[in-house]
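Renewal narrative, Specific Aim 1. Our central claim is that a sequence can be written position by position from structural information alone. The example that follows is taken directly from our test logs and has not been curated for this report. It begins with the structure tokens describing the chain, in the order in which they were read.
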């Protein structure tokens, strides 16, 4: 089995400088994993809260599973991230720095298990975003010129 990407946080790379990434498992209920497999997850407002001992995925919206009826889950409940103790400690030390946060980048299924790619990130200023857009546009124009010559 390969990797099937279920959801991505498209704004993450635009809003933040990605410093370091980790792969974490997610502790899910039965109805949640069925919704994740169906692609019913959104990371738009999601973030990762790290205390000294555990990491939690907050504000990720997993839609209720239709066939679960009354045994359904709360769509925005905090979900525990499964990481090694040393990784949690490293994240905890990084988060205590000014301007550094931990955000989810994507959720995917790997060998049947739900995984989330999280990143230690630092927020971009408006001028950083503008510079990146200008650089991307310039690169696109160069590509366009090269293709027109051929």
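The sequence written for that structure reads:
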């Amino acid at each position: 089995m390969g990797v099937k990407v279920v959801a991505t946080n498209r704004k993450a790379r635009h809003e933040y400088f990605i410093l370091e990434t980790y792969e974490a498992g997610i502790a899910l209920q039965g109805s949640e994993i069925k919704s994740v497999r169906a692609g019913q997850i959104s990371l738009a407002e999601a973030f990762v809260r790290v205390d000294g001992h555990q990491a939690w995925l907050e504000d990720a919206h997993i839609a209720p599973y239709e066939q679960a009826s009354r045994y359904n889950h709360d769509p925005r409940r905090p979900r525990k991230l499964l990481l090694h103790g040393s990784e949690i400690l490293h994240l905890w030390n990084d988060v205590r720095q000014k301007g550094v946060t931990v955000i989810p980048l994507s959720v995917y299924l790997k060998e049947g298990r739900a995984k989330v790619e999280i990143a230690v990130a630092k927020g971009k200023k408006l001028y950083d975003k503008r510079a990146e857009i200008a650089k991307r546009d310039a690169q696109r124009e160069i590509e366009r010129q090269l293709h027109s010559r051929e």
